[in-house]
Design goal:
Strand order of the largest sheet: 1-2-3-4
Number of strands: 7
CATH topology of the largest domain: CBS-domain
CATH architecture of the largest domain: Roll
Distance between the termini: 26 Å
Number of helices: 6
CATH class of the largest domain: Alpha Beta
Helix content: 40-55%
Strand content: 15-25%
Order of helices and strands: HHHHEEEEEHEEH
Radius of gyration: 24 Å
Shape: rod-shaped
Length: 183
């Protein structure tokens, strides 16, 4: 799973590559027409319009191909990496931790022993061992968690061995803009 920084770089590189390909193909069309197209530079002419359409088509197709290749969110791609999804650590909601199973109140909580997480209560009928629970580092981008939500209704976020909290499937879908589709 990629971090926010890696997504920013992927979005910037993909955008710049699509821009370069679009400009290169438009320049080749300009050369094929022996420099007759001057879209926006010295008046309006059909050659310039053709260059502009070729650039738009190639740039759009290149962006689509880049998005499929590097799998970044549209906003990250279209802003060349300036806007990126938040990290899991920023989105995670706090979660109660308990030391004894007897104090379990039926809500989702993490069972700890000596400060170390041992399992999750409230996720299934019995305790889920911490090794089987879906756990991600706090630096991971939220958009990278979708595969985990196909298997589990909640993902736990840790930083340096400390449980920061959890992200529920419903909260994830709201963040990604799906709203009520999570139900």
């Amino acid at each position: 799973m990629r971090t926010v920084r890696e997504l920013r770089w992927a979005g910037a590189i993909a955008y710049l590559a699509a821009l370069a390909v679009g400009l290169l193909v438009a320049f080749l069309v300009h050369l094929l027409m022996k420099g007759q197209g001057r879209f926006g530079w010295e008046g309006f002419n059909p050659g310039g319009v053709l260059e502009g359409f070729v650039f738009l088509f190639v740039f759009t197709f290149s962006l689509w191909a880049a998005k499929r290749a590097v799998r970044v969110p549209c906003t990250t791609l279209l802003t060349a990496g300036i806007v990126a999804p938040p990290s899991a650590g920023k989105v995670a909601r706090s979660l109660p931790t308990i030391e004894q199973v007897e104090s379990f109140e039926g809500r989702l909580s993490v069972l700890t022993e000596g400060g170390e997480p041992q399992g999750v209560l409230g996720l299934e009928d019995r305790m889920v061992p911490w090794e089987r629970a879906p756990v991600v580092p706090a630096e991971v981008a939220v958009s990278e968690l979708s595969a985990l939500f196909w298997k589990s209704p909640v993902v736990f976020v840790v930083k340096d061995g400390e449980v920061l909290g959890a992200i529920t499937r419903e909260h994830f879908f709201q963040l990604m803009g799906f709203g009520r589709l999570a139900v």
